[in-house]
Amino acid sequence: MTRTDRLYALVEELRAVSPRPRSARWLAERFGVSSRTIERDLSALQQNGVPIWAEPGRTGGYCLNAAHTLAPLGFTVDEALAVTVALGTLTTSPFGASATSALRKIVAVLDARSLTQTAELATRIHLLEDDGSGGATDNLAAALRTGRVLRLSYLDREGAATVRDVEPMGFVGKGGTWYLIGWCRLRDGLRAFRGDRIAQAEPLAERSPRRPLEASDLGIVEGRMRAVGLGENPR
Question: What is the pTM (predicted TM-score) of this model?
């Protein structure tokens, strides 16, 4: 976790438990750094206007005034439920960690009534998934964003293990299965790597060339490809 990511995460953690305090020691264990590092981070946030203060005493710690950070989201209950379900489907995808973080942020800023209703409705919705893990997904989404070449430890359909340097180009998801689409330098061609067969994904320092990816390049014979977008006029 970078320092910038940790600063955002600290604010979200304090907002989630507001008005209760969190001690520097607790936060240090939560984020895997020293208490001194946490205190420096919190001081930097305070200097930038984030309403954080310290409560003394044995049960004291750092508190955040949630009312002066983010206003409640203007989601209806149906919208909040839809977002919750959508993020829940990404748990075993390359975007699982980010989806979990995004859901925490939404929960932290929903108004109490909407949150209660959404949480109750969410208990009635379940996802049917295949057994097994989602594979080594930690570095996949970041590699697509940064353009860095990945060194994959991969098992093919016969169970043979190979190590390949791959230029990430995109992802295809079907049901609970996700595929990394990339230019395989071992095979010198476009390949689809099933997520649950990727044993390890190591980002290299090298950045890959930008290669165009069209649905027609993938040779899909079943189903219809649909792009994920932000609408006609994303800001």
Answer: 0.64
